[in-house]
Design brief:
Layout (H helix, E strand, L loop, with lengths): L6 H4 L1 H26 L8 H30 L11
């Protein structure tokens, strides 16, 4: 390894793992905090938790699907079979 800055690239896998772990930990912490604030723990609706997640992530997912479907294939491709998609 010639440059010490390349260690950022080599540690990318660990960085992503730590990011996912922290996201799950913080999300669980706040969800449990909301459950403790309520006296009736059964009042937490699992459907609403999943519905909130879907409503939060669906627009970003749809934008990504539309982007790859329309723009990336039409303007970002090359190769012998690229023009068959028009």
């Amino acid at each position: 390894m010639e440059y010490w800055t390349f260690s950022v690239v080599l540690s990318a896998e660990h960085t992503v793992d730590i990011f996912f772990w922290l996201t799950a930990f913080i999300g669980s912490y706040f969800m449990l905090g909301k459950m403790v604030e309520r006296e009736n723990v059964k009042a937490v609706s699992w459907f609403m938790l999943y519905a909130h997640r879907v409503i939060r992530l669906l627009p970003m997912y749809m934008f990504a699907m539309f982007f790859f479907w329309k723009f990336l294939v039409l303007y970002g491709g090359s190769g012998p079979l690229f023009y068959q998609y028009h």
